[in-house]
Amino acid sequence: MTRTWLERILPALSVIGFLVAWQIFVDVRHIPSIYLPSPLAVAKALVVMAKDGSLVANLSMTLLRIFSGFLIAALSGIVVGLLMGMSRLFERVVDPWIAALYPLPKISLFPLLVIWLGTGESYKIIISAITAFFPIAMSTYAGVRQVDSGLIKAAKDLGASWSQVQLHVVLPASIPSIFSGLQLGMGVAIILVVAAEMIGSSGEGGMGYLLINAGQVLDTERVFASLVVLTIMGACIIKGQQWLERKLAPWATL
């Protein structure tokens, strides 16, 4: 019982310990805020950003772009991955394209997308969708290909049709890999959307715009505050995905 309680509070204690050490280090060394602001200074900047509305407005824009692109990637990636795993012919058609485009650094597409789409919403949503699509599709495909052949054979021996085997055996068994791909896809989508906001920061807003704008005027407190918000945002999204996996597919987390 004591060990379980300790395991629950240990993450919070590690964060608190880090913040205390950070505050002491800055105070003892008298480090100027322009180089390394203290946690208290960052907290004050967060309060100011929350009060003036810039934090909520820019965070909302970033989240909308991330989830819009991610939804497109999740739907298309899962469908493509399932079809690749279930159909040998579809796999042979799609595999060369996946093999060629998956390793391509997606950040290298920025100049082309800016030329085609400008730096507006379409550009950021498309980069979110493209970056998240490949890990989702590949993880789904891998999950389908790794399904225990004994389970498939047993289902066929019991008289299950091809579609029943795919729906009731292959798909449930692939859920862990699908959720792993969704987590990977979300991670890269967050990174690339914020990067796109920083590159195309001509007033469209977003956390990337807020971050680069603060850096340009050497407002280090707001830079750190933006980084803190991005960190918390990413952690909440990933933890939310893990919670959703436990609720929708409890057998996948056993």
What's the story with the biggest beta sheet? none
CATH class: Mainly Alpha
Characterize the overall form: globular
Averaged pLDDT = 87
* CATH-defined fold name: MetI-like fold
Quick tags:
single chain; 254 residues; 10 helices; mainly alpha; globular
Give a verbal description of the structure.
With 254 residues, this protein is an all-alpha fold. The protein has one domain: MetI-like fold. It has ten helices and no strands. Helix 6 packs antiparallel against helix 8.
Brief characterization of the structure:
The chain has helices at residues 2-29, 39-52, 54-86, 88-101, 110-117, 121-145, 149-157, 162-199, 207-216, 220-248.
How are the secondary structure elements laid out?
Blueprint: H1 2-29, H2 39-52, H3 54-86, H4 88-101, H5 110-117, H6 121-145, H7 149-157, H8 162-199, H9 207-216, H10 220-248
Helix pairs in contact: 2-10, 3-4, 3-6, 3-8, 3-9, 5-6, 6-8, 7-8, 8-9, 8-10, 9-10
